[in-house]
Amino acid sequence: MSRFESWSVWLTSLVTAATGIVLLWMKYFMESGDQWSVINHPWEPLVLKLHILSAPLLVFALGLITLRHVWAHIRERVSRGRRSGFAVAFMATAMVVTGYLIQVVTQEGLLRVVALGHIGVGLVYVAWLSVHQVLVRRAGEGEQAAGDLNRG
Would you state the torsion angle of the CA atoms of residues 146, 81, 133, 99, taken in this order, to the nearest 10 degrees? Predict the structure, then answer.
């Protein structure tokens, strides 16, 4: 994976996660002083728009790495980071699907379930992405150290 691809995934994941977490806080954990207000914070609409604008960039970044990184590692049977990589891919897929469903589901009860699912898989996606990065780096350092020992 190129540096551009890596930075694209990490930057868009960070921005999308940050706006999502701030939106979650504003929507579910704040209360408006105005009993008639449908928003809990004056910046809530802006944060929602930033989240909605950053999410397609994340989807693009994930698509960017799918062939050269994900599919290549599957095809070449690379074992390093395989399980955590599959977990990231699964959570990313669920996050994207639920994100789109939020835009089209109109039944209130189902919308709540989809939204909670989106929040859950979004948080797990960020966690697994971080775990995947740590595991792959550790495995790479171990392989490099073993190679140095074999050469020396």
Answer: 170
d(CA 133, CA 75): 20
Q: How far does CA 16 lie from the centroid of its chain? A: 7
The string of pLDDT tens digits covering residues 67-126 is 888 888 888 888 888 888 999 999 999 999 999 999 999 999 999 999 999 999 999 999
The letter for the amino acid at 95 is: M
Residue tagged 């008639």 (tokens): 36
pLDDT at residue 146 in the model: 47
Q: Measured between alpha carbons, how far is 64 from 120 in angstroms, rounded to an integer?
A: 24
Contact 47, 23 (CB under 8 A): yes
Q: Who's near 87: CB < 8 A, 6+ residues apart?
A: 128, 131, 132
Does residue 32 sit in helix, strand or coil?
coil
Q: Which amino acid, residue 89?
A: A
